[in-house]
TrEMBL record:
Residues 316-484 form the Acyl-CoA dehydrogenase/oxidase C-terminal domain. InterPro entries: Acyl-CoA_dehydrogenase-like (IPR052904), Acyl-CoA_Oxase/DH_mid-dom (IPR006091), AcylCo_DH-like_C (IPR036250), AcylCo_DH/oxidase_C (IPR009075), AcylCoA_DH/oxidase_NM_dom_sf (IPR009100). It comes from the Eukaryota. Belongs to the acyl-CoA dehydrogenase family. Residues 198-306 form the Acyl-CoA oxidase/dehydrogenase middle domain. Its cofactor is FAD. One of its GO terms (molecular function) is acyl-CoA dehydrogenase activity. It comes from Vanrija pseudolonga. Keywords: FAD, Flavoprotein, Oxidoreductase. This is Acyl-CoA dehydrogenase family member 11.
């Protein structure tokens, strides 16, 4: 055999990334579980073509551009002679702008509110987020906040009470401002559409926002310009400092600031028109963050001074009002994580089909022929399936709650129970899935060997390292694992606690009683036993339970995932789905001494 040179010898065949809507059984089964069959049929062509668009060469070229031409601030410093320059402006790369425009034009966020799709609209949107997120270079971050801002404005316009002391003119003007902002947020023309920011975190704390040092002062309706819709800027003037503000190229921000009555929520346009010129509405960029991942996403520190804004909801009710945004963005985080896990696995599967080993005799010399590797892929598939179902379940619950329409049997039977589970499980799903996402993508990198660790801009569609870097932020932002766990304990031991627990118990029974497959009888028994033991074991006192909040989230997450895996398997009697359910339940619930050590090697080709 001649010695290899740089141009001769062995070269690895490149893996081909498939269309996920066609290839990814987990994604398809999530669609089948959470959508009526007629909706899957009607939407399938659109989802197929969306799945093709998100892996087009143009999109990957845009990712490479966005990842290599990082956002920066232009100006804002001092000249060599010490004179202050104009305020810095944010410059994003052409790649970022292409990806942002793709997201806006595709309209997957407004589609989540499509009345024609009813309760299914949120599930279709979730499937598109899962498909798009790994290609989005984090433009899905402003998309998520755009979605949260839409939800909060729709709520506000539905319950549009006039704040104390406001006259009718002011209230009518605010209504017009909110309607126009909503129009921009729902717009699918990238030249007109707005994304949103969500400015909560300050130096004093992002988990605990009670230390907010941003103040909103009532100044009334002054002549400080108009917003980009030509409507008056708000009667509050906000000043303070925001420590993390992602995607400050947004059109509008939802932010927290103190008024004399307490922490309150505001909407502020980021730009204003003064004498026909576009100006920044009362803030300046201090600097951009230097981050492990999410490189293309501009995350800024902002000094706010005289930013004109409108109050949303009641004064002093800021956290409760902005929690509407949080719950939507937490759903985005969960489903986006599932999308990342699916893409990582898809790359590894593709690699396993082409990677050969010279010491093994052909034709059984491919990576996927190695039982140990196959078993690793199979267990990653089990975890991915569980997390995809958990995340899509939250989308199903949100769709059912916001339209009062239960479209599939796997959702709770009553509207009230949908509401309770949505409140309890949104934090659980975000914490549970995002933590797995990091470990899962590490395994996917390792599955490609050394190439998996490379910052691979030549074949960006196969760059798992980028996804790993990015996935590390998902457990941190929008509430860390521990903070979401404390939220879960607060709910369980708060005024809705008994009702939430009751709703979860009813739903578990509803799903487990719906099918009767003998092969899953033991698995179902294990879920019931786990749930009963869990409920009985919990201390009734909140403070005693709080240090165990992670255990609460992980256990609820496991029980919900297991129940959904059973529902998925029993829906059509699919053998592989039943095997996945059994493996998950054995791994999570069986005592260590009865866990099978041997067997269970089937994997990549069947799952
Ligand atoms: O990180 C951010 C953006 C990142 C980039 C965007 C990505 C977009 C997604 C794309 C996919 C990847 S923005 C910053 C995010 N920050 C957080 O998530 C904050 C984390 N901290 C918490 O969640 C804490 O639990 C706090 C701040 C909510 C706790 O504050 P408090 O003051 O202790 O609040 P309470 O007492 O827990 O709640 C006050 C009220 C209560 O209602 P009432 O007063 O009626 O009893 C709560 O029930 O707010 C209600 N509430 C909620 N309601 C609190 N949380 C919720 C909730 N999640 N749902 C409904
Ligand atoms: P801290 O709140 O100081 O937390 C430190 C540690 O204390 C954490 O481990 C936390 O879990 C723990 N902790 C805190 N409270 C409790 C508790 N009660 N019980 C148990 N443990 C606790 N924020 C925005 O508002 N807008 C944005 O656009 C935005 N973009 C971001 C982009 C990136 C890339 C990153 C990394 C962050 C972004 N954030 C944004 C901020 C993010 O939401 C916060 O970093 C996060 O909420 C944590 O807040 P903190 O950094 O102040 O940490």
């Amino acid at each position: 055999m001649p010695a290899a040179t740089s141009t001769t010898g062995f070269f690895q065949v490149e893996p081909q990334l498939p269309n996920a809507w066609d290839e990814d059984a987990t994604l398809r089964r999530a669609a089948d579980l959470f959508l009526p069959a007629s909706t899957v049929t009607a939407e399938s062509a659109d989802l197929h073509s969306f799945a093709a668009d998100v892996i087009s060469p143009e999109i990957f070229a845009a990712i490479t551009n966005a990842e290599t031409q990082l956002p920066y601030l232009n100006g804002g410093g001092y000249t060599a002679f010490g004179a202050p320059q104009d305020a810095a402006t944010l410059v994003t790369s052409p790649g970022w702008n292409i990806l942002q425009d793709f997201a806006l034009a595709s309209g997957f966020v407004p589609q989540g509110y499509d009345a024609k799709l009813g309760g299914s609209a949120r599930v279709i949107e979730a499937l598109k987020i899962a498909l798009w997120a790994p290609s989005s270079a984090l433009t899905t971050c402003p998309s998520g906040m755009q979605d949260g801002a839409i939800e909060v404005l729709r709520n506000q316009l539905r319950n549009n009470t006039t704040p104390p002391g406001w006259n009718k003119d002011l209230q009518d003007t605010r209504t017009k401002v909110f309607e126009a902002a909503l129009g921009r947020l729902m717009n699918t023309n990238p030249k007109e559409a707005w994304t949103s920011g969500q400015w909560m975190t300050e130096r004093a704390g992002g988990s605990d926002v009670r230390g907010t040092e941003t103040i909103a002062e009532w100044v009334g309706m002054g002549a400080d310009g108009v917003d980009l819709n030509g409507l008056p800027l708000g009667p509050y003037s906000i000043s303070g400092f925001k420590w993390f503000a992602s995607a400050a190229d947004c059109g509008v921000s939802i932010l927290l600031a103190f008024t004399p009555k307490g922490l309150s929520c505001f909407l502020a346009p980021t730009r204003k028109l003064v004498n026909g010129k576009v100006k920044i509405n009362g803030f300046r960029f201090q600097r951009l963050k230097n981050k492990l991942g999410t490189k293309a996403l501009p995350s800024a520190e902002l000094e706010i001074k005289g930013m004109r804004a409108w109050l949303i909801g009641g004064e002093g009710r800021g956290v409760a009002v902005i929690s509407t945004v949080l719950n939507v963005t937490r759903l985005h985080n969960a489903i986006r994580t599932a999308g990342f896990m699916g893409r990582g696995l898809s790359v590894v599967r593709a690699f396993a089909r082409v990677r050969t080993f010279p010491s093994r005799p052909a034709p059984n010399n491919y990576l996927y022929h190695i039982p140990l590797f196959n078993k690793t892929l199979a267990s990653l598939t089990v975890r991915y399936r569980a997390d995809m179902l958990v995340a899509t379940f939250i989308a199903g619950l949100l769709g059912a709650v916001s339209t009062n329409q239960r479209t599939v049997a796997v959702l709770p039977a009553s509207h009230e129970d949908n509401v309770l589970l949505l409140r309890l499980l949104t934090s659980v799903a975000k914490a549970y899935t995002t933590k797995h996402g990091v470990a899962h993508l590490q395994e996917c990198m390792e599955g490609l060997g050394g190439v998996g660790y490379l910052e691979n801009n030549e074949t960006p569609h196969l760059n798992v390292a980028r996804m790993f870097r990015d996935a590390n932020v998902f457990p941190i932002w929008e509430g860390t694992f521990d903070v979401l766990s404390t939220d879960t304990v607060k709910v369980l031991r708060g005024k809705l606690g008994a009702e939430c627990e009751g709703a979860l118990g009813r739903w578990i029974n509803q799903v487990l009683n719906a099918g009767s497959s003998a092969q899953l009888a033991q698995a179902k028994q294990a879920i019931r036993a786990r749930w009963e033991a869990f409920v009985l074991s919990l201390p009734s006192d909140k403070d005693t339970l709080m240090p165990h909040a992670r255990y609460v989230v992980n256990t609820i997450g496991d029980i919900v995932a297991a129940t959904l895996l059973v529902a998925d398997a029993e829906r059509d009697g699919n053998e592989v789905a039943a095997e996945i359910a059994r493996r998950f339940i054995t791994a999570q619930f069986a005592p260590e001494d009865v866990k099978p050590v041997f067997g269970q090697t089937a994997g990549v080709s069947r799952m």
